TrEMBL record:
The keyword Signal applies. Keywords: Signal. It comes from the Eukaryota. CDD domains: CLECT. The keyword Signal applies. Pfam families: PAN_1. Residues 16-95 form the Apple domain. Residues 114-239 form the C-type lectin domain. This is C-type lectin domain-containing protein. Residues 1-17 form the signal peptide. Gene3D superfamilies: Hepatocyte Growth Factor, Mannose-Binding Protein A, subunit A.
Amino acid sequence: MARPGAVLLLLLATASAAGRYRRLHPVSLHGPAVKTFSATSAVSCGLRCEAHTPQQCSGFIYAPDDGTCRLFSGDCRGPAVVSSQQTTEHYMARSVPSEPAVGRCGCPAGFHRCAGRCLRQLDLAVNHTTAESQCAALGAHLAVPRSDEENQCAAAAAATAGTKAVWTGLIELPAMEGVYTGADGCGAVPVQGRWASLQPDDGGPGVAEDRVLIMSTGTVHAAGWHDNPAGARWQPLCQLALGYRPGCP
Ligand SMILES: [Ca+2]
C-alpha cells in the first residue's frame, strides 16, 4: 500500500528534499541494496540518500517495522524477471532536477521525450561497441525498452532510421542463454513477445548473436527484435540514464 504520509513528511522535512522523491509502484530493483542503515523515519532515510550523488543513490526503501533504510543505485520499470530482482511497492525514487529551461517533461537538446524517457537516435550505423561509446559520450546508454510503451518508442525510432533499425542496450548473458541484461544497470529485461518471427536464432553455428536490435517494418526482415553479432552496424538509440519522468508522454 502507498504511504502518502511518508511523502508528506519528506516534503516538509527540508527544502532540499522537497519534490526530490516520488513513489514508484511497482518497480523492480536489480540486485541488493548498495547500502543498508538503521533509520528512525523515512525522512532520515531520505536524507541519507541525499548525502550521495544521484548516481550513487537513486532512491530508497524504508521499512518502518524494523527501521531498515536501504539505498539503491538504480530503479527499473516493469516486473522482476529473475530471482535477483525484487518487485516492491515501497520504493521512493529520487528526482533529478531538470534544467530550468527544459521543464519537467522536456529533455536536453537533441533528445526527445517518449514514455517518460529521453531518447536520441544517432545518424550513423556503427557496431555495438561504438554505439555504446557514442551514447556514453552523451551521458546516456543504449536504450533498454522494458515496458510496452518504451518498446513502442524504440520501434518508432527504428521506423525513422535510415536503416529502419536501431541498436538497443540488451546483451545476452554468456552463461545464461536466452537471458538478456540491460545497459541501464537494471538487470534482466523482459523479452517475451518482443522477438521478430524466427528470432532469436543465434545466427547459426560459429556465429555469436548476443546483441539486440529493433527492426521496423518496411524491410525484407521481419519487424521486431532481432539478435545480431556485436559487429553488425545499426544506428544507436541512446537513452538518458537519469531522465525518467513518470507521467510524461
Ligand atoms: Ca538473429
